[in-house]
Amino acid sequence: MIKLSSLTLGKSAVIREFEKSDLHIKLMEMGCVPGETVKVEKIAPLGDPICIIVAGYNLSLRKTEADHIWVEEVAV
To answer: Which stretches make up the Ferrous iron transporter FeoA-like domain (predicted)?
Structure first.
């Protein structure tokens, strides 16, 4: 497993778990729930923020937020 912030452009992964913090509830409310597939759609020129596709919509996350999400990369 790797952190979502480490996933490269165009790669897809399945959310497996969160680091326990106050942020994980906010992330779950935005559709980032365990078992959901995410894809890195865009990365800002300086690397922060990143744009992912999750639950059918685009979501922009700071790298510090993406650091709390553990994912398992899937082959496409």
So the answer is: 2-73
Distance CA 36, CA 63 (A): 19
Strand ordering across the sheet containing 37-43: 2-3, 69-74, 12-18, 37-43, 50-54, 57-61
Q: To 5 degrees, how large is the angle CA 44–CA 48–CA 53? A: 70
Q: What is the pLDDT of residue 76?
A: 65
pLDDT in tens, 49-74: 999 999 889 999 999 989 889 999 98
Comparing CA positions, the residue from 6, 20, 21 lying closest to residue 52 is 6
Q: Which of 36, 33, 29 is nearest to 14 (CA)?
A: 36
- Exposed / middle / buried, residue 51 (Cβ in 10 Å: 0-12, 13-18, 19+): middle
Closest by CA position to 71, among listed 27, 49, 25, 26: 27
